[in-house]
Amino acid sequence: MTRTAEQMKGRAGRLARLMPSGPSTAARTPFVLLVVLLLAGGLISLLLLNSALNEGSFRLSKLKRETTELTDEQQALQRDVDSYSEPDALERRARELGMVPGGSPAFLNPDGTVRGEPERATAQPSPTEVPEASAAGPASSSGSASPSASPATPSTAPTAPASNSPTPPPTSPGR
Questions:
Q1: Which of 101, 76, 79, 103 is nearest to 91 (CA)?
Q2: What is the pLDDT of residues 73-99, one digit of tens each?
Q3: b/e for 98-108, b at 16 or more Cβ within 10 A?
Q4: What is the 3-state secondary structure (H, E, C) of the chain?
Q5: Mean pLDDT score of the chain, rounded to an integer?
Q6: Does 57 have pLDDT greater than 80?
Q7: 109 phi and psi angles, rounded to 5 deg
Q8: Is residue 123 scored above 90 in pLDDT?
Q9: Bridge partner list, 114
Q10: Torsion-angle region of 2 (φ positive above 0: left; ψ -120 to 50: alpha; else: beta)
């Protein structure tokens, strides 16, 4: 066994000669600097990533708020369009423009003949004029009522010619 111990001493001795004797801080310094730089770089990159995420979050909340406002505005505009499209509103605006309902239409057959008798559109007293006259009624009941301030009488109101013969609905000869 002495020989193996001597061989071990010989090997250990040769290895000991390869290693410098004493504390070696020069070999640790680059490793410590590398670790510190990696940690600092990781922390800085996390800080930048966190800042970018916060900026994106603020932008997202701003865009959501703008989307909500624009959706509310769109719904308000759609309500306005719907209220203007109602038949009563269309009729009221048409009467304000002086339009009157059309009379009985006439139809042209494919051979060029006219079916039905067309009637001229005439203004009839509109139901919207009655509330205006009744709204003026309480104001004129203070004792200064005059015949010119009274609502239109049947003799002055335009009347439509009475037609008791209904116009037949249009039909195609081939059906």
A1: 101
A2: 999 999 999 999 999 999 899 989 988
A3: eeeeebeeeee
A4: CHHHHHHHHHHHHHHHHHCCCCCCCCCHHHHHHHHHHHHHHHHHHHHHHHHHHHHHHHHHHHHHHHHHHHHHHHHHHHHHHHHHHCHHHHHHHHHHCCCCCCCCCCEECCCCCEECCCCCCCCCCCCCHHHHHHHHHHHHCCCCCCHHHCCCCCCCCCCCCCCCCCCCCCCCCCC
A5: 74
A6: yes
A7: -80, 160
A8: no
A9: 108
A10: alpha
Nearest to 169 by CA among 107, 83, 114, 118: 107
Tokens linked to 32: 């410590």
**Count of residues in the chain:** 175
47, two tokens = 């800080």
> Contacts from 124-128 at CB under 8 Å and sequence distance 24+?
124/100, 124/158, 124/159, 124/160, 125/152, 125/157, 125/158, 126/95, 128/92, 128/95
